[in-house]
Amino acid sequence: MPIHAVEALTKVLHSLHDDESKPPLHVGEVMTLWTYLALLEEAIVLEQIYLNTTEDTELEELLKKIQNKCNDQVTKLKEFLQQEGVPFPPAAEQKPYSEARAIPVGAKMSDSEIASAISAKMAALITLCATGISQAIRNDVSMMLLKFQIEAVNISAILKSSMKKRGWLKVPPAYSPPGSPVE
Predict the structure, then answer these.
(1) CB contact at 8 A, 80 and 37
(2) Closest Cα to residue 140, out of 81, 85, 71?
(3) Exposed (0-12), middle (13-18) or buried (19+): which is 141, by Cβ within 10 Å?
(4) Residue pLDDT, tens place only, 75-127
(5) Is the C or the N end of the chain the one with fewer CB within 10 Å?
């Protein structure tokens, strides 16, 4: 979706923003936001592990960018949930820095595996945002999830481009329906 279309959609949703007193979050909104926070905090720990194992500078830069974006989203989400009186999910402990070369090859993921794992996590976050947006009653929840989703889509596009360039993207075979002309 072109960026101007996303901006237009954001403006429309923003114009519908709940001006009156907001109703309490419903159970679906709480579950989506709570799960999203849990996935983000898990992603941050995984990114720390990936940063400790990769030696690819481009992948390292992307991991740092993703980690910063995740930290920003965690901060916003925790502030929002705290205001709404929603307890936080338990979070995994942060990982200390370690030298990638000190980890035996058989004990760490390859750069291709790291990129695929990040891609899968981003797909889960994007899907959760879309589901949450469609189920949300409150526009402030929809807007926050839309913003998070757009950020995840942007990062995913960069990741996909990097994976294509390196031959890491797993592409299914072309499909020709039965009876179609053979080229």
Answers:
(1) no
(2) 81
(3) buried
(4) 999 999 999 999 999 998 999 988 888 888 888 899 999 999 999 999 999 99
(5) C
Give the C-alpha separation, 140 to 137, whole Å: 9
Counting beta carbons within 10 angstroms of the beta carbon of residue 138, is it exposed (0 to 12), middle (13 to 18) or buried (19 or more)? middle
Question: Residue 10 has what pLDDT?
Answer: 64
pLDDT in tens, 160-173: 999 999 999 999 99
Domain at 31-93+109-166, CATH class: mainly alpha
Angle of helix 139-166 versus helix 27-53 axis, rounded to 10: 30
DSSP 16: T
E strands, 72-174, in order: none
51 touches 58 (CB < 8 A): no
Long-range contacts of 156-163 (CB under 8 A, 24+ apart): 156/119, 156/122, 156/123, 156/126, 158/62, 158/65, 159/62, 159/115, 159/118, 159/119, 159/122, 160/119, 162/58, 162/59, 162/62, 162/115, 163/112, 163/115, 163/116, 163/119
Tokens for 105, please give them. Answer: 């090859």
DSSP tag of 176: -
Contact criterion met (CB below 8 Å) for 116 and 125: no
